[in-house]
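Re: the 651-residue chain
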Amino acid sequence: MRTTLKKGIGRGAAVNGNGHAVLPPGALTPVTLYRQPPPPRRGVAARVGRFFLWAGAVFAVVVVGIVGGFYLWAHERLALLRPTSAEGQLTQARLDPPKSAATALVLGYDHRAGDGTAPSRSDTMMLIRADPVTNTISMLSFPRDLQVPLYCPGKGGGPAVAEGTGRINSAYAYCGLGGALETVRHLTNVPINYLIPINFLGFIGVVNKLGGVWLDVDRRYYNKNVGTSETDFANIDLQPGYQHLTGKQALDFVRFRHTDSDLYRLARQQLFVGAARQQVAKSLGLSTVLGIVNTVSQNHYLEIERGGRSVNLSDVKKYASFAYNLPHGHVFQVKIHNIVGENELATDQSNIDEAVQQFLNPDVDEASVQTATALGRKLPARKRTIPPRNVTLTVLNGNGVAGSASNASYLLGQKGYATVTPPSGQPANAPNWNYFHSKVYFDPARKKDGPVAAAQVARLLGGADVEPLPANIRPLANNALLTVIVGSTFHGELAPVVIPSTPTRQPAKVRRDPAATRSTLFKLRKRLPFTVEYPTLLESASNLDNGYGETPVRIYPLGGKPTLRMTFRTGFNEYWGIQESNWADAPVLDDKSLTQRVGGRQFDLYYTGSHLHMVVLRDNGATYWVVNTLLDSLSNETMLAIARGLRPLPR
């Protein structure tokens, strides 16, 4: 018998889906109606939370889109900075991949008016080295008229070819980027990791995107080109004093050399680089970086060649962060000394070698030593060194040149290092001959002495790479503290390392002459919102710069506040100055080397290498700056004497 009870129809169906009894059972239907009670009404807190949840989700999507878009855009822009020409790609192949420290060759170039189709010439050639181990930036400039051996790239990427002797800037004109690179590399024997050619329009664009630069102008610069032989050079119109320069004004300043010489132009260029770094530290933000990348990439003003691979966002972030966080006083401007000549300059190679060693090995303790000497105080303790007799080292051949390892081992032994050979009579050879740059490996188990000793030996080899001993080299080390692999950069001689020496104190070259400025400043003092100080001591051969109708004492706005500038000229037609201002946070004041308290007053000292470039007295709620000449020709003792001789005028 058939039944419907299993389906819940008939006697077993008490109620249907609508909650009503069905007796007798109703007809079957595929549609059933239900009535549910309304959901409970959300409170205010729940509705607000829901709004912010959705808003947060939308915001997250937007942020991710922006970040992703910026990432892709930045990669695209950086790609535009990479070399696209055959010359640029061949030159990049000649660069050394950067290690811990990195060196860049910056090349400024342009076609001059009237040159027509003549090859462009390099006006600026500067090596810049960033070393995160010592937290230093070093700069070494080359006068464009310096006579040096010239080298051009070999055909098809072959070895460089000697092309005789000529002005260093002609290497770029004759052989392009590769010629400039090979000439500087052979001249200095410094591995170069980046090549940065930039034309003058790019220079202007980058400076403007930085918001300009604050820079100290040593004297009056003026020329209006009216077509005569006396005025046939670029227009320029700058007053002396610390001031804000646009890109065009900065370019006029760094290129000028028509009433002095190329040595002064080099000093102006290095002064600008220091000022630009200060501006980066003050204003470098996301918008600034975007503006700079966009400017140079859109207009093809600049390329960046990097050894080993192309430049990426990690490189930009790393070096921007390094420049931003650099300790005070850790920028070093190195000069080549004993340069002679006028239109064509020359110097002995030993002077270049000495400058290179100072460039590679900046002494961060030098400012303290120089200051103590100038003030007649006890010298501070120097940085730690390891006596060579306490250092064992094994030397291996990594360049394939017969006798390289034994020669280097002998020379290091002559310096007092204890040399050992690989164990069990193994040959003193590295695993391969592909070491271009020499290596100095230290035993990582001896962290106290290893890095210090390795850095000392690396300087002797001309700036070799310092790294922990890798596992594949350890069997050849024979338990030595150091293992040296001589690469292709080793040419059979140790570098003439500059040993930190104790400077000799000299008498300050000053004369007492308070009347030179006191009456003039007394008349101007009411125009300034701070106490004016006058110098009682002047450099012995200096006077106020009254030549050519100049105004040697002037008041002008600085950082929105009135400031005072005095300009003095030495007997050698160099210029130094005294700046007085109550702008306490001017960018240049951030980069002091050290602070000293002398005679109850506080002085901030600003060094470039061993030379005291600026002394700043902080007193009366204001700052009083004594600024050296472009070539830092006033001695440290003279600079300190002038600053200590400042005296306040009554209000």
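The first helix runs from residue 44 to 81.
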